[in-house]
Amino acid sequence: MNLEKSSNAFIEANKYIPGGVNSPVRAFKAVTIDPLFISRGKGSKIYDIDGNEYVDYVGSWGPLILGHCHPEVVKALKDMAERGTSFGAPTEIETEMAKLICDAVPSVEMVRMVNSGTEATMSALRLARAYTGREIIVKFIGNYHGHSDSLLVKAGSGALTHGIPDSPGVPVDIVKNTITARYNDIADLKNIFDTHGDNIAAVIIEPVAGNMGVVPSSEEFMEALRNITKEYGSLLIMDEVMTGFRLSYHGAQSLYKVDPDITCFAKIIGGGLPVGAYGGKRKIMENVSPMGAVYQAGTLSGNPLAMAAGVTTLRILKEHPEIYQSIEDKSRRLEEGFRDNASKLGIDIQINRVGSMLCLYFTKDKVSDFDSAVTSDTVKFAKYFEAMLKEGIYLSPSQFESIFISNAHTDEDIEKTITANYNAMKTLL
Ligand SMILES: Cc1ncc(COP(=O)(O)O)c(C=O)c1O
Ligand SMILES: NCC(=O)CCC(=O)O
Q: Which sequence positions carry the modification called N6-(pyridoxal phosphate)lysine (predicted)?
């Protein structure tokens, strides 16, 4: 595999961009090779600037549930670009987007568009604090909600991969109001509420955590969380940035049958363009400016291009509910194939999978929280990642990320991936 052009491009990028990338996880720091520079994508495939083809399981870290360059998404973007790219004034397509989200997710009665998942969760916290008149936020260890100050505490994703759980530059005065709790641990949650309950504005959770690999919350845990937040008058913020419109058209909250106060979205609702959103109960959302006093704004929020890609993606998902069964089937086939391979080769692995989110850990321990996730052998993962790449399979370049199956993955891609997985795991023996 020739990666010369990518390596040179990385050297050049490093001269002008910190670490050569515009988001740390792209730098491949947890694996042994330089990042690939991508020139284009189509369907389930991406192509690097050296001309190599890969089956892509990153999908831009989740948004591309329909694959790269879906013809209807591309057409919607072209049509909108002809009319203008940004007005800083209301457009009808923003209402269409808001209606699609509110119709799909019953707990969301009003929604505000922003530009990223980070903005969505950051704004949701401000709203929760204003609404309750309280300051403390509870987050779970290993959950990642973007890089805002209050939430960059014991976070997953790149913050975990790069070994920087708490970033310098985050004021102590701000994070003193963030309490971290153990995921899937009801007793820990109860203890925290016993001590701080009356001052807790909100608990924020990834219902299926996708930033320490893939770790679903248990149904009992989710139920306990909803009950205790209600009991103490704290809000429940569901971070569905990754799970929203992926695990179901109605969100992970529909699978858990839980009714959160605020939900955060991003990724899929932007169809591959920069978007985020936060929404929830009308009585809460009415506090957002200019209706209420909680200030939050954005020059490019509700951007027409982003709305065009997002609305088209959501419409396709709504009109074709069979997509969810199809990605579930492909994902299950991958899981079964990987398990068969590991047992044939006698390698200890754990696979956590919910719908089209999947993670293979190199550990014999069941993975149900942060502590068990980090038992995985990351040196093995790095070797596995490189071997898969040589087989033409592009995975998330870290043990602590999900892979994403899209509707563009073909049966042939899945079979190729299972064979590649066998060959790659064999190199670990
Ligand atoms: C669950 C979750 N919340 C929030 C974010 C932050 O979103 P963004 O990267 O768009 O700021 C991410 C991913 O980045 C995420 O996976
Ligand atoms: N799980 C990680 C992400 O979803 C975010 C990607 C990024 O930070 O670039």
A: 267
What atom of ligand 2 comes closest to residue 242's alpha carbon? Answer: 4
Distance (angstroms) between ligand 2 centre and the Cα of 400 equals 11
Sign of the alpha-carbon torsion through 116, 122, 128, 131: negative
361 given a catalytic annotation: no
Number of CB atoms found within 10 A of residue 377's CB = 16
CATH 3.40.640.10, the chain: domain bounds: 71-319
What is the mean pLDDT, run by run of 10 residues, along the chain of 429 residues?
96 98 95 95 98 98 98 98 98 98 98 98 98 97 96 82 71 90 97 97 98 98 98 98 98 98 98 98 98 98 98 98 98 98 98 98 97 97 98 97 98 98 98
Residue 161: the pLDDT is: 65
Q: What does the pLDDT read at residue 287?
A: 98
Name which residue sits closest to atom 16 of ligand 1, judged by CA: 242
ipTM: 0.99
Ligand 1 touching residue 143 (CB < 6 A)? no
Q: Any catalytic annotation for residue 166?
A: no
Q: What CATH number has the domain spanning 71-319?
A: 3.40.640.10
Beta-strand (E) ranges in 57-96? Answer: none
Mutational pocket test of ligand 2: of 57, 65, 157, the residue with most ligand atoms within 8 Å of the beta carbon? 157
Please identify which of the residues 45, 139, 267, 330 carries the catalytic annotation: 267
The CATH superfamily assigned to 4-69+321-426 is Aspartate Aminotransferase, domain 1 (3.90.1150.10)
Say what the pTM is.
0.97
Task: Supply the DSSP symbol for 270.
Answer: G
| Nearest protein CA to atom 7 of ligand 1, as residue | 117
CA distances from 84 to 79, 88, 89, 128, 305 (A): 9, 11, 12, 35, 8
Asked if residue 209 has its Cβ within 6 Å of ligand 1, the reply is no
Q: Does the active-site annotation cover 330?
A: no
Q: Is 276 in the pocket of ligand 2 (CB under 6 A)?
A: no
> Which ligand sits nearest to residue 212's alpha carbon?
2
Check residue 167 and give its pLDDT: 85
**Spatial separation of the C-alpha atoms in residues 138 and 150, rounded to whole Å:** 10
pLDDT of residue 224: 98
Residue 235's alpha-carbon distances to 146, 177, 254, 266, in angstroms, are 19, 15, 18, 20
